[in-house]
Design goal:
Layout lengths: L2 H24 L16 H10 L3 H12 L1 H44 L3 H21 L1 H39 L4 H24 L4
Length: 208
């Protein structure tokens, strides 16, 4: 699939996935994601984790990739685009670099012409040629700008999707795994008692 047709498909896929995320999160399994468990012994998860990144958001999202096929399909689409886009644009990039290199070299040569009239004459010719070339590739330029714009939007939506998928999971983890307040309260009371004893000893031994 060409780059200019694959990107809109990815954007549509991400938008659909974002819209379905709330429904899917309501059906999330009771088990905490592996990224939120104290011990992670699954080699497959560790491999995905290392490939996705070191942040907890990435870790939770990587866990969801194994549980939600539509998310994995999106990752495959993005990977396919990232790998295929350079090849699809290679021929034009090579063609364009040659032309741009020529006009750059021609401009440098113009500076070496001492005769101002002759230099001005050929500068006008070179400028006309360059304008003609830009008109020739205008459709390519429009498409490439469109690809770059959509690529940026895909990146934004992809990041937003990670947040949409992972935020309800961490909130559920927070709700279901809130520690008992008793032990923290006991430590707080112990700290208060130590402070009082320390103050008493200071007052008792204060030099008068």
């Amino acid at each position: 699939m060409k780059a200019n047709t694959l990107l809109p498909a990815i954007l549509l896929f991400i938008c659909t996935a974002c819209n379905n995320t709330e429904k899917n999160n309501a059906q999330v399994q009771n088990n905490a994601p592996k990224a939120l468990q104290d011990k992670i012994a699954d080699p497959e998860f560790s491999s995905i984790k290392n490939s996705r990144g070191a942040t907890l958001v990435d870790d939770i999202y990587a866990d969801q990739l194994q549980k939600r096929p539509e998310l994995q399909k999106l990752e495959d689409l993005i990977r396919h685009f990232d790998e295929g886009a350079p090849d699809s644009l290679m021929q034009f990039d090579h063609y364009n670099r040659k032309s741009e290199a020529y006009y750059g070299s021609a401009g440098n040569l113009l500076l070496s012409i001492k005769d101002t009239v002759l230099r001005a004459h050929f500068k006008e010719i070179i400028d006309q040629s360059q304008h003609k070339y830009k008109d020739t590739i205008s459709q390519f330029s429009v498409l490439i700008n469109h690809i770059d714009s959509n690529r940026a939007r895909v990146g934004d939506y992809h990041l937003a999707l990670k947040l949409a998928v992972t935020l309800p999971i961490i909130e559920r983890y927070q709700f279901e795994n809130l520690p008992d307040l008793k032990s923290t309260a006991n430590i707080a009371n112990e700290a208060q008692g130590l402070k009082v004893k320390a103050m008493q000893l200071v007052n008792k031994n204060r030099v008068k």
